[in-house]
Amino acid sequence: MTQRTIEPLPYAYNALEPYIDEATMRVHHDKHHQTYFDKYMAAIANNKKLQSMNVTEVLKNLVRVPDDIKQAVINHGGGHYHHRFFWSILKKDAAFKGKIADAIVKKWGSYEKFKEAFTQQALSVFGSGWTWLVTGKDGLEIVNTKNQDSPVSMGKEPLLCIDVWEHAYYLKYQNKRAEYIEAFFHVINWQQVEKYYQHH
User: Which end of the chain is more exposed for a tag (fewer CB within 10 A), N or C?
Assistant: First the structure.
């Protein structure tokens, strides 16, 4: 049966307070994410093959997407996939530990140096987009994607991400992206990041 609505958040809307506020989570999940999902479903409405694939598979195989709907799939399928992934890696006060923590320290030298590198990347996104910790043939790396372009379309496996579209933080932080990024580090679900790392 075709999915008709997005999954609920895996926690209460206020679970990430005071770092990410309830009002933002309600609008971000219920309005923005739902709209991406609705527009993605509309884009693939006449394509049985794409309807039979999950959105991750579709984004990994954009060559199979007809040209007339490709940009809509990238924009809205990406928006749906990215937000679903983002909700999964958020949790307050999770400990930085596990094999992923060891790998991060090995690559960047320390948690603080990783945090600094990730923050600089997120601050450098011009306009709307995302910053990701990914793994792939080059090992761990931090990459930016514009708008709703997806790292999975580039052959990379996401482990962690931050949404730096203004709708992700404007209600609480206005235009202070740096404050939002700092707050984000208090709500990373490192246990989930570890699961993604173990299964990549």
Answer: N
Q: 3-state SS string over 12-71?
A: CCCCCCCCCCHHHHHHHHHHHHHHHHHHHHHHCCCCHHHHCCCHHHHHHCHHHCCHHHHH
- In the sheet that holds 129-135, the strands lie side by side as 141-146, 129-135, 157-163
Q: Do both 63 and 136 map to the same domain?
A: no
Q: What is the pTM (predicted TM-score) of this model?
A: 0.95
183 contacts 90 by C-beta, under 8 angstroms: no
Task: Tell me: do 123 and 83 sit in the same domain.
Answer: no
What percent of the chain shows pLDDT beyond 70?
98
Q: What is the mean pLDDT of the chain?
A: 95
Q: Are residues 45 and 71 in the same domain?
A: yes
CATH number for the domain that contains residue 176: 3.55.40.20
pLDDT band, residue 3 (cuts 50/70/90): low
The answer on 74 and 123 residing in a single domain is no
